[in-house]
Amino acid sequence: MNLEKVIFAFFIVFAATLNFGFFIGDIDRPELHNIYELFAAIVVNMIATVLKFGDRTQIGAVLLSTSLVADLQLITAAVIWAIAVHINGTGMTPEVTSSVVSLSGGALLANIISVTMLVVETVMMRR
Amino acid sequence: MNSVFFLVLRRMRAPIIVLIVFYAIAVLGLTIVPGINADGTPAPAMSFFHAFYFISFTATTIGFGEIPRAFSDAQRLWATACIYMTVIAWSYSILTLLALLQDKAFQHTLVASRFARHVVRMHAPFFLVCGCGETGSLICRALDILGYDFVILDKDAQRVEELDLEDFKTNDPTLTADAGSAANLLMAGLCHPQCKGVLAVTNDDECNLAIAINTRLLNPDIPVLARARSRGVTASMASFGTHHIVNAYERFAEYLALAVASPERFRLIEILTGLPGTTLPQVHLPPHGRWIICGYGLFGQSIARYLALPGITLTVIDPEGEGPASGHTVRGIGTEVSVLEAAGIMEAHGIVAGSPNDINNLSIAMMAKKLNPDIFVVARQNQGANDVLFDTFRADFSMVHTRIVAQECISIITTPLLSRFLAAIRQTDESESHELAARLEAICKGQVPEVWSVQLDLRNAAAAHKALLNNWPLSAGQLLSDGARREANLPAIILMVERGSEIFLLPDAEFMLKAEDAVLLAGQHFVRSALNMTLRNANVLHYILTGEDRGGGQLWQLLFPRRR
């Protein structure tokens, strides 16, 4: 068992599950999407991204790029939330909620790709 | 580039994760700890937006104060913790980055990748110089004067730093690396399409051998010049087809023998193969008769072999008592009066101070001069650092092996025609050599002339090539006319014209040139560019051929053809 691999897999799966947790529920109902969960998803995603730094293998490069996509989507979602709540003062209307949640849905897709590749890599390992 | 980038990212993983985690904890805490209103009533905690804003300016120690409103005591407590946490995280990141920049391995990667990029981007033909000690720097300086680019590999980091201080015209890439390894040679452009040759001139015979083998295997099309001292290495270099093996001892011994046998021819060779940009060497006239050789190492053996000419008797002084089977041998260093007298210093005509120790050589030379003021002294100088001593002593003939190797390399790589010319000149009379040497000396005013060759083809001499194909007669004399005043001649001599496998030595002014001829010239530095003008610019060539000045470029002449 390789500790580095454990930590790596942990963060990738954790990022995907947190993202899923935030995404699940009716898309336009703000009470079903907890902002703390979005925050946790962003933090864990960023850690997962940094863990992939400096990996020169092909699979490492693809993992890094999917992770960057997820970061980008989640941060955009957070910025939209901040604008709606603090700057425009519109609050979490169904339109705002659905755009935040759909962005996190995109991030979820990227995270699912990461997890799939992790599984594929593990399966392909001979030992 | 790539490897440096990945190295930085890899090393920065831990500090960045720490930074993210600490930020996350700090922001999360602020969104939980309750605040307080101005009137003292409890207020809800900060939102994520405000919390992130507060932590962002606090963590970077900008510190705008308590924004958006005055904090409650609980918030202040948490903010204190946040300040320490985030400052530690930032310091950790910055220190890691600084440590990385200081790291020797990282710096080497940085320098190597910059060097590799520089080499890849080279557009002009260049030479790969391996080893940049005294010989290497002499070669580089000469290449620089001749306008060639070069890439330098040297093992010694200090030498490489010193090279930065050399005032070369071009910014030539230099790397501290073992030139004997294939990876380093490849990085230095061994297989680069512009690489025109490899010079293996390190101090280490084995390393030179490794470079020669690498070059022969990895890029067999380019010439490799290798320096060798021992005969074993020379033989193994020759076995796999090294193009030129430069053995300074052999070469000097050959020169000395040539200077004894045919001084005029030697003088000519000396003028033509000198390092460009240096002053002409003085005339050497070593005598026939009795010679004493001090030191029977590799150098002494070469001298003994070449000096075995009719009319010369040899006596060898050697600390081990070794000597040629036929000759007379005395045991000693040669600095002692008794040994010199035993070797017959009083009747000797020449002495070679050829030990591997510079101070011993000087001492032998001075002692010999004192005992026999008329003796011809040949002194071997091993280290360039002793230049001052040897210049002050003024031996009749000095042997500096670094200079000999450099001269040989430069003349071989820059003008391949020259070796053919020198081979041909050996067949001719002494008086011809004398005449030519006198002409060259008159032209060059005390400086070593530049020797170069020009091929009269489309690429190197577009105008001349076109004129010759159109049957305009161009003679050797016209080629050397001044493009500004055709009555005047450029200070240069055409040494040889090569036409296919035929060669014409020293053609006269009426010699008619043909397209695709290769011309070997010697003259002052500026003649080279002046001649290029004649060969490439149709207007200048037209003026030289006909005497009329034809203005305008191709377009002008096309639009307004002059009526005849």
TrEMBL record, chain A:
Transmembrane segments: 7-24, 36-54, 61-84, 96-120
The keyword Membrane is assigned to this record: yes
InterPro entries reported for this sequence: DUF6394
Keyword annotations: Membrane, Transmembrane, Transmembrane helix
Protein name: Uncharacterized protein
Source organism phylogeny: Bacteria, Pseudomonadati, Pseudomonadota, Betaproteobacteria, Burkholderiales
From TrEMBL, chain B:
Record InterPro entries: K_chnl_dom, NAD(P)-bd_dom_sf, RCK_N, Trk_Ktr_HKT_K-transport
Gene Ontology biological-process annotations: monoatomic ion transmembrane transport; potassium ion transport
Keyword tags: Ion channel, Ion transport, Membrane, Transmembrane, Transmembrane helix, Transport
Pfam families: Ion_trans_2 (PF07885), TrkA_N (PF02254)
Subcellular localization, as worded in the UniProt entry: Cell membrane
Record GO cellular component, one term: plasma membrane
Membrane topology, from the record: Multi-pass membrane protein
RCK N-terminal domain location: 124-246
Keyword S-adenosyl-L-methionine part of the UniProt annotation: no
Transmembrane segments: 12-33, 45-65, 77-101
Entry keyword Transit peptide: no
Main location: membrane
Name of the featured protein: Potassium channel protein
